[in-house]
Amino acid sequence: MHLCLFLIIVPFTQGLSQVSVVNRCPFVVFLKSVQQDVSQVQELGFSQIYSEAYRPVINGTGVSIKITTNRKVGEEVDEQKRSAEFDNSPVTQLEYSYVPSNGPVDLFYDISAIDDSPERQFCQYGYQLHTTSFRCDSVHCPTRCDAFCPHVYNLPDDNWATHGCTSDVGLELVLCTSYTDMP
């Protein structure tokens, strides 16, 4: 048990001031990092990690890391068609706003499942958003497909799902936390 906790904490204590997505799913996921500009579609295989340094808000716009399990995205070779397929897919979003001039609490973050319908792609696997500090809130969505995760945005006015912290704290979203066949 202590070894498991050690393995979970070590990877993201090395990457302060960044956000990461860890794919523990037994399948490929696809993501895009979106602010005013949009990254190309990234493919994340089993046990792979996507990371980026916090980007400050631009004209009040934060960052949304959109994640989908739609396999058709991976079948497209043409980047434009791949991007279009991604844009028409259900997505789970890890959203953050880094506001350097805001004072001590300058990082705001949440997970949104608003555009993840109708099937809620990770409900049978679960996911967790960890922080590198115990003073900042984590988000846990257990494996459950019969109800919405109560800790994320399910409706546009679920503003209680937004958390605040300092930007020296890292964020790590682990997908498929219930999947136990790790290498």
Automatic annotation (TrEMBL):
The keyword Hydrolase does not apply. This is Thaumatin family protein. Residues 1-15 form the signal peptide. It comes from Metarhizium robertsii. The lineage of its organism: Eukaryota, Fungi, Dikarya, Ascomycota, Pezizomycotina. The keyword Signal applies. InterPro entries: CetA-like. Keywords: Signal.
